[in-house]
């Protein structure tokens, strides 16, 4: 059985789709999967059971990336094609069954919309497939023989989502006062822009673990899985932390928690005051974030 799974360009949306993919793996354990996604998300699927190939869709002018995808898939007869991008591509492929998710934004959790495509309620939770090499690297980077490691994710792909960087130092001061043995790990994506955003926090917290920049997505997920808590902006990293099973606290300003709240084993979020989708994230107070973070730490204490 061969399945074509067309998922998101953005990392966060791709992570949310992994629950649906995991359901398909369980339902069709002998299936061979082809994943089509954007370049940022491609590494997420490298350990997927039954993976045949990943087709990286790089955006082209005049939507030529869809033509390229069609050319890569036209030679195959598919047993099932799933398109989470709402395109017409699968109508032009030989497919015994096709499921197409309606494009565009609509109210409600994105995760629920994904589940509805296969009539799954509740929807399957996101997951990450890790290799033994990923786990080995994580154990070297994130020690578990000392105090708890708390992950901080101060970056995002849009400046409007970024909680003011200068609040992480007083946040950490209070967390470490409550848990003196705790140590921070700073997570951020590849590229100079991401590192520039993370550097002030790395410099302000000299004992922090630098867990960003040059790791694969599955390595990052494995490192996050070793952390006691993730605190960070609404971002792909936030969704990856939740999928890895890390207790996750998402910080929301002008993005919508009603659509993109983190989904996982233990998740919380705080929202800046104001109209949803328009609230400046700077309005999210240090006191509020600290209070919820400490509550989550107390509730998840092993």
Automatic annotation (TrEMBL):
Glycosyltransferase in keyword set: yes
Alphabetically ordered keywords of this record: Glycosyltransferase, Transferase
GO CC aspect terms: cytosol
GO molecular function, one term: ADP-heptose-lipopolysaccharide heptosyltransferase activity
Pfam families xrefs: Glyco_transf_9
UniProt cross-references to InterPro entries, sorted A to Z: Glyco_trans_9, LPS_LOS_Heptosyltrfase
GO annotation terms (biological process): lipopolysaccharide core region biosynthetic process
Claim: Phosphoprotein is one of the keywords in the record: no
Protein name (database record): Glycosyl transferase
